[in-house]
Design goal:
By secondary structure, the protein is mostly helical. It has 2 domains: 4-66, Arc Repressor Mutant, subunit A (Orthogonal Bundle), CATH 1.10.10.10; 74-135, no CATH class. Helix content is 49%, strand content 6%. It contains 6 helices and 2 strands; from the N terminus they run αααββααα. The chain has a two-stranded antiparallel ribbon with strand order 1-2. A hairpin with a 5-residue loop joins strand 1 (54-57) and strand 2 (63-66). The mean pLDDT is 86.
Length: 144
């Protein structure tokens, strides 16, 4: 499950992607449009600035904008930056691997093998979609 932090970050960056090339966007606009608490948004945007995804300028004409083109920022990158891993279990994580507590052994654990497949397929999908992509309506309709 995605954390609230991850969902807020993605929504904020989608807001900036929709305004890519228009100049700085004020924090108050992002917070109001995306229903994100401003103090929380400030922290998230600072983290994304340190990661090189967005840039900012202070002052009356200041605000935030994407430092890279929307088609260069994948959902997979955002999830990894905010959540740390795409694995649903610690033993299925590439970046935050840990052996599961009370595990029988990974080479005999069928759940481990399934979670590796889930992680790899999730990574394939999230890494192939960027902030510039529009999800086709047929995908949304299939989920209803």
């Amino acid at each position: 499950m995605l954390s609230q932090r991850t969902r807020y970050t993605i929504r904020a960056l989608l807001h900036l992607a929709d305004r890519y090339g228009d100049g700085p966007v004020r924090l108050s606009e992002i917070a109001a449009a995306q229903n994100i608490p401003p103090k929380f948004l400030t922290v998230m945007l600072s983290e994304m600035t340190r990661a090189g995804l967005i840039a900012s300028r202070r002052g009356r004409e200041g605000g935030y904008w994407l430092a890279r083109a929307p088609q260069e920022i994948s959902y997979g990158e955002l999830v990894r930056l905010t959540r740390g891993s795409l694995g649903l279990l610690p033993c299925a994580s590439r970046l935050a691997y840990e052996q599961c507590e009370h595990c029988i052994s990974e080479d005999k654990c069928r759940l481990h093998r399934v979670m590796l497949m889930v992680r790899d397929e999730t990574a394939r999908i999230l890494d192939s979609l960027t902030l510039a992509d529009q999800v086709p309506e047929t995908v949304l309709e299939a989920q209803e």
